[in-house]
Amino acid sequence: MLYAFSTAITPGPNNFLTLNTVSRFGLKKSLRMMLGIICGIMIILTLTAALSFVLIQYIPQLTQIAKILGAIYILYLAYKIYTSKPVELDQNIKEPSFLNGMILQFLNVKIILYAITSLNSFVLPYTSDLIQIVLYALLLTSISVVCLWAWGLLGVLLSSAMQRHYKLINTICALILIESVISLFL
């Protein structure tokens, strides 16, 4: 539980995307994207629960491929956050969508590694019961939901400050995401 919570609450692509989107569009208009993120997390965790043993046992290089794709996604996200403007300054901006939130999870290396690490370290060594594994995947999803909402509420609370100082905050968020890419390969 501690590992899951500490991993889910720390800054990462989902949390920064939620913070940035909620501060720009508000919580109500960001709900679809947040639900997409949650569904994507649940799908990733369920697939990982079902395939984890096979992936690690027979195709260990898949973890490296996921890491590279995830790094590209995180750099893209850093660029998008860095170049984003408050909604009132950017008339061409689209509202966040459910599908975008969900699909981005398949390139989110933090969620993929979170699923693999949690299940392989804390579940699979102790049980091979499919029901227990699926229940643990749902528990991990629930923890992620709570943490995502915390970041969404932070976006609501900081909205006006983020609107006023968007360039500085976007730069800091983008740099933190770039650092997370560097740390993936160290």
Number of helix segments? 9
Q: Name the structural class.
A: mainly alpha
Low-pLDDT residue spans: none
Order of helices and strands: HHHHHHHHH
Radius of gyration: 17 Å
Indicate the mean pLDDT: 81
Shape: globular
The proportion of strand residues reads under 5%
Whole-number count of domains = 1
Biggest sheet features = none
Would you count the extended β strands for me?
0
Multimer state: single chain
State the helicity in percent bands.
over 70%
Distance between the termini: 26 Å
Write up what this structure looks like.
By secondary structure, the chain is an all-alpha fold. The chain has one domain. 80% of the residues lie in helices and 0% in strands. α1 runs parallel beside α7, α4 packs across α6 and α4 packs antiparallel against α9. The longest helix has 32 residues. The chain is globular, with a radius of gyration of 17 Å. The model has no long low-confidence stretch (mean pLDDT 81).
Task: State the main characteristics.
mainly alpha, 9 helices, 186 residues, single chain
Question: What's the structural blueprint in terms of helices and strands?
Answer:
Layout: H1 2-9, H2 13-25, H3 27-58, H4 61-83, H5 98-103, H6 109-122, H7 130-157, H8 159-164, H9 166-184
Summary?
With 186 residues, the protein is mainly alpha-helical. The protein has nine helices and no strands.
